Amino acid sequence: VKRVTTHILQEMKARGEKISMLTAYDYTMGRIVDQAGMDVILVGDSASNVMAGHETTVPITLDQMIYHAASVIRAIKRALVVVDLPFGAYQGDSKEALRSAIRIMKEAEAHSVKLEGGREIIESVNRILSAGIPVMGHLGLTPQSIYKFGTYTVRAKEEAEAKRLIEDAKMLEEAGVFAIVLEKVPAALATEVAKELTIPVIGIGAGGGVDGQVLVMHDMLGITQEFSPRFLRRYHNLYQEMLGAFENYIADVKSSDFPNEKEQY
Ligand code: KIV
Ligand code: NA
Description:
Pfam families: Pantoate_transf
Radius of gyration: 20 Å
Active site: 183
Distance between the termini: 41 Å
CATH topology: TIM Barrel
Subunit structure: Homodecamer; pentamer of dimers.
Bound molecules: 3-methyl-2-oxobutanoic acid, sodium ion
Subcellular location: Cytoplasm
CATH architecture: Alpha-Beta Barrel
Strand content: 5-15%
Order of helices and strands: HEHEHHEHEHEHHEHEEHH
Keywords: Cytoplasm, Magnesium, Metal-binding, Pantothenate biosynthesis, Transferase
CATH class: Alpha Beta
Number of helices: 11
Oligomer: single chain
Structural class: alpha/beta
Helix content: 40-55%
């Protein structure tokens, strides 16, 4: 199989082929997602929520991200793997940002990293890029800044914020990032950004006018229940199916139905 590269993603945008992207956090799931033909797999810091049960993405550590990333990477034959730099690993100092990115590349054997923010973190983006590490940007709703904003509502609805977002997107493109995630912004704004940029814009809650879509695996599978934003399409109700399987197993153990004669030595 031919590996997806950042260059191939650029070509996909140029010819109008939409880019599919999904999160994964472990080997077993990463393998299924890769075999399905996903273009990009994101080892998201949403692992903090869906894997570790934290309320936000703030607590997850670089070591924990490396563990998830290394597990996923072992399963991947085709997809481009992007790994989130977690909160605290890149904001303070661009040299620390580079050290964090290098650890992800070396210890997890990742293909690229993603950072949240625009002008505030441009020094870190530049330093990581100059070391030859591909960077994906992330603008709009940036969950690592949740305590600054206080809510997970739609971003850049007002003109000043929309203008700033467009400037940040252009600044990131000029710096050399290979793609940008746009999270939870008005569809019209996201469409405009995708038109203005030559690099792919991958949306989540950003409408259909962008170059690709990303979702969180556990949300689209219907494993998470509490989280139900408008942009989320559920492709399964895995929560119910798993609950049923666990209940049936319990019942079979209690009733001594399991194991039967054939299920023993
Ligand atoms: O961590 C994550 O899952 C993400 C996506 C929502 C883009 O950053
Ligand atoms: Na993330």
